[in-house]
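We give the entry.
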Amino acid sequence: MTATIVVVLVLIFIAAVVFKSIALIPQGEAAVIERLGSYTRTVSGGLTLLVPFIDRVRARIDTRERVVSFPPQAVITQDNLTVAIDIVVTFQINDPARAIYGVDNYLVGVEQISVATLRDVVGGMTLEETLTSRETINRRLRGELDAATAKWGLRISRVELKAIDPPPSIQQSMEMQMKADREKRAMILTAEGQRESDIKTAEGEKQARILSAEGEKHAAILAAEAERQATILRAEGERAAKYLNAQGEARAIQKVNAAIKSSEVTPEVLTYQYLDKLPQMAQGQGSTMWMIPSQFGDSLEQFAKAFAKKDDDGVFRYEPSKVDPETKEMAGQDDTDAWFDTSSDPEIARAVAEARAVANKPADSPLATELEKNSALPVQPPVAPQPTPLQQSLE
């Protein structure tokens, strides 16, 4: 029984010795080893052998980056306003031995140094500068903390101001100021928009009036040109008509004269026609009395003696004169097909086609430029119309 107890005690002792001689350090941690109360070494990440009952692990330190948020701190600005600022510090322990032996509690040390540095930095700024200078405050806090905690084996990688809370009254005043500024900018933008709209509207109306005036000007020019052309053409037509009437009357007289000469009318026929027309001459409304002169026969006798020859029987007989070929040709039938030619003058057809093309032209956006070009062009004088076949035949 006693031997059994001894064996158990020996096994327990061996297990205790083995337990005390082995230390397992996880990845991301570091262990500070002491031997008989004195610092020996720092181990990390793996299995470590210790001298039983002589070596011991003083502390295990997390070597990963740590993010620590400190509660809001009351800080007085240069313009005597109290603001609450809370900061976030990101740091990493590079030397676990210094973090253990250099400071009692490195977290409290980092917090106190951060608050002191923050009050020193913000105390030299106004509230407005504090609110708009976060990057400057962060940079100064990081520099001060990194220099102060280097002897503790810490490395300050980043310092951020999480929130800056001014007093409620100041917040209300700032909100009112921001609201007034936003309303001011809104009013300015509205005024600018209205001004731009008015300018654009005025420009549009100006362009519309210019285009309308140019269109009316061009239309007036075209109307005046059309009226001038129409007046010229009417005058030309009236002149041609008068000329054709005169030519027709002259040709008709020549035709009648040639026909009379060609027909070789005798004085007997003329006398018969004269006596046949006397009753018609007396049928006029104003002819209440018509007298034949008593010497009328003598007149006819003298006319016959002047234009006739006395035959053997003592009777004066009229012998018509010989008709020349030109008179016979004139008395013949003329070619009157060209008199009734109703085809339009080529110049008139061309003018009508141009006017129809201008009237059918669509109005596009660069109308003002086109109208200016058209209005700047010199007006071409009208081309005299070519004589028609009827005029050529009369001439």
Notes: The mean pLDDT is 76. Residues 168-263 form the longest helix (96 residues). The chain has twelve helices and nine strands.
